[in-house]
Design goal:
Layout (H helix, E strand, L loop, with lengths): L6 H15 L1 H11 L10 H9 L18 H13 L5 H17 L2 H12 L5 E4 L15 E4 L5 E12 L6 E7 L10 E7 L5 E6 L7 E12 L3 E2 L5 H12 L3 H18 L8 H29 L5 H26 L14 H12 L6 H19 L2
Parallel strand pairs: 1-4
Antiparallel strand pairs: 2-3, 3-7, 4-5, 5-8, 6-7
Bound molecules: flavin-adenine dinucleotide.
Pfam family, one: Acyl-CoA_dh_N
Keywords: FAD, Flavoprotein, Oxidoreductase
Protein name: Acyl-CoA dehydrogenase family protein
Length: 388
């Protein structure tokens, strides 16, 4: 399988490289990363700078702040962000996950009001699905919303946890129970809740990786009727669509690629000669990375063509995250304590941070066992249909 990269994407790559290397981008990147506690800093000024240059949502229609480019422009953008050291998480959640869902399933009014602001970096979003007792089993959410007694909207009550970027997000996409429904999959509604609404509290939780988790409490939080995303009670089908957008593996593949490049540089640094087994490991991981890119591109292409497939996406996310984790751990085994040293020419210990980030990669955005369950279920269904 081969994905054609149009000439327009090559031109976009050059434009992005020039923008990421410009002095203002580098200044804003340094400022965003310079927190004394080494946790993730506030990247919103940097995103606004990039958003003003119009590069953040290349694959969206231009009427919503995009460039009408195909999905390969998104792949190139993420590859370049990571290799220029631009933190990508808040961007990825805001534009590529929440924004993609709005693009697919939002009303025309939501698309016109939210997408251009996401694309310009003026609006950021996080996802509040997981609760203290429910992660993979999302149909069990207990955070509730009941209609406000004055008919003005809804009152939300409950708790969400282990989410990233809530400290820097303006709005949260929340899965909330609005009705007990006939089955666990009914009665769930998605809300877009502004995080500065009275009654919302955001508390950081420590994490092994550089990015903090958060614990969010909703205490009698009043939101308007327009906070509902999609129809009331129709949240489950939207969550499934969002998973198809989230689980394309791109965010994992780009980090894996960068980590393997950095590890390869270290293996030959200062005239060092890699051993045969080191070279074999490098080749093995490169092959897995090539497969990751193909699976990611296939899932993104389907999404771009409006034919998203949750099993195809789950396979991509599973493969990319397992590959990334394998590369981070192989780098540690191969380089040993040298991994703790900052990258030559920078003060950035990329591979050490990767080692701490790796365990969460096969849990976030769908744990590996759950993704394999979805892939196997879809395969069995196909075999039943074809009589295999
Ligand atoms: C880095 C990171 C970032 C995250 N960011 C967010 C975020 O932004 N927003 C958010 O809402 N959440 C976020 N999460 C939470 C994440 O979505 C959940 O941790 C994940 O869904 C797993 O849920 P859980 O922790 O409750 O584990 P559980 O669901 O209890 O799973 C525990 C173990 O059981 C296995 N398991 C569960 N169900 C099955 C099954 N049916 N079959 C086989 N095995 C199963 C799992 O694979 C896992 O190994 C993040 C997590 C991490 C690590």
């Amino acid at each position: 399988m081969h994905f054609e990269v149009p000439e327009s994407t090559a031109a976009f790559e050059q434009e992005v490289d020039a923008l990421f290397a410009d002095p203002e981008t580098r200044r804003l990147r340094r400022t965003a990363r310079s927190r004394a506690d080494h946790m993730d800093g506030d990247v919103r000024d940097l995103y606004r700078h990039l958003g003003r240059a119009g590069v953040l949502a290349p694959s969206w229609p231009s009427r919503y702040g995009g460039r009408d480019a195909d999905f390969t422009a998104t792949v190139v953008l993420l590859e370049r962000m990571v290799s220029h050291g631009i933190p990508q998480s808040l961007y990825y959640i805001s534009v590529q996950i929440v924004g993609s869902l709005i693009l697919q399933a939002g009303t025309e009014e939501q698309k016109r009001s939210l997408l251009p602001r996401l694309a310009s970096g003026d609006l950021t979003a996080c996802i509040l699905f997981t609760e203290p007792e429910h992660g993979s089993d999302l149909a069990s959410v207990t955070t509730r919303a009941i209609p406000a007694s004055d008919g003005s909207g809804w009152v939300v009550e409950g708790r969400k946890t282990y989410n990233l970027k809530s400290a820097y997000a303006d709005v949260a996409l929340c899965a909330v129970r609005t009705d007990s429904g006939n089955s666990r999959y009914e009665g769930i509604t998605l809300f877009l809740v502004p995080l500065d609404t009275p009654g919302v509290s955001v508390r950081p939780l420590p994490s092994l990786a550089d990015e903090q988790f958060h614990d969010i409490r909703f205490s009698q939080v009043r939101v308007g009727k327009d906070a509902v995303f999609g129809a009331v009670g129709a949240g489950w089908s939207l969550i499934t669509r969002m998973f198809a957008a989230e689980r394309n593996g791109l965010d994992y593949y780009v980090r894996a690629r960068y980590w393997l490049e950095r590890a390869a540089d270290r293996l030959v640094a200062d005239g060092r000669r890699p051993t045969g087994s080191e070279l074999a490991g490098l080749a093995r991981h490169q092959a897995r990375l090539d497969a990751s890119r193909l699976l990611t591109c296939r899932a993104l292409q389907s999404l771009h063509e409006g034919e998203s497939d949750i099993a195809q996406a789950s396979l991509a996310k599973w493969h990319c995250s397992e590959t990334a984790q394998g590369i981070a751990w192989w780098a540690f085994e191969t380089l040993g304590p040298e991994l703790l040293e900052p990258e030559p020419g920078t003060d950035d210990p990329v591979l050490e941070a990767a080692y701490r980030e790796a365990p969460g990669m096969t849990i976030s955005g769908g744990a590996s066992e759950v993704l394999l369950d979805i892939v196997a279920g879809a395969r069995l269904l196909d075999d039943t249909r074809t009589g295999g």
